[in-house]
Amino acid sequence: MGKGTPALGRHEVAEWLVRYRPSGMAGELWDGPLGLFVRDCLVRLDSVGVASARRIATVLSGLAAWSVAEGLPLDVEVVLDPDTVERFVSVGLVGDANRGTYRSVLRRIGPKLTNKAPWEPRPEPVCRRQVAEPYSPAELAALWRDAGRQSTDALRRSALALVALGAGAGLDGRWVTRIAPEDVTAAGVVVGEPAARVVPVVAEYVGAVDEFAWSCPAGEFLVGGRSLSRNRASSLAARVELAADTPRLNCSRLRSTWLVGHLDRGTRLPELVAMAGLKGLTVLSDLLPYVAAS
Questions:
Q1: Contact, 181 vs 214, CB < 8 A?
Q2: Domain 137-290 in this protein, CATH class
Q3: Which pTM does this prediction carry?
Q4: What 3-state DSSP class applies to 90?
């Protein structure tokens, strides 16, 4: 419906149709069963604006006239059957520049006007989460540098641990604030739910993670102290003081950086999926544009 076009109820559409005559169609054809068929379809549709009603009437009139010529009964279940619609568009409109419009209109109204015609229900829209962009090596180096320059020891420790566990073990906000000193082992970091597993730490961050575990105060997590808040990671990341040209600290971007690093190194997909706690390959496929060409 166009902006500013008033919605018409069924009765208003029916009144408009009394005056409507398709251009190029013989009066006797429209005044017979064909016109009755089109008018009945329009009245049964939900409220539409004048422009929409006119467009639908034009399309339906063309389909109905073609159906009559093909010897088909003017039965809505036959005329608006998906196969009939497709044959009409493909055969009856050869060379017509409006074929796409006709098909779109008929596919939209067909399921609304029929009960038996085999129109497939439209799939539910899938909202696909956009993958977080990984940091470049220079950006990651800047984050590590600035994380070590915080105004308090507590914030410095948290910032460095966020980077080390994110870029070194792929832990984002779901896990990074739940790692206790005893979870850091020779085999890697023991991660809990969701997707419990052991994640080997990337070599360049092993020393830092071991140091954080060794020096962590009793009863605290490596990141976030004793807090169990689900938003603790994002809250801490937002407090980290960074230089003007350093990108914002983001746990999802650190995880993407870790994933891309493994893809660059040729880590086998089954092992990477298990280490990352993934349920499929969608995230990895979305990150392929960031993988260095071999």
A1: yes
A2: mainly alpha
A3: 0.58
A4: helix
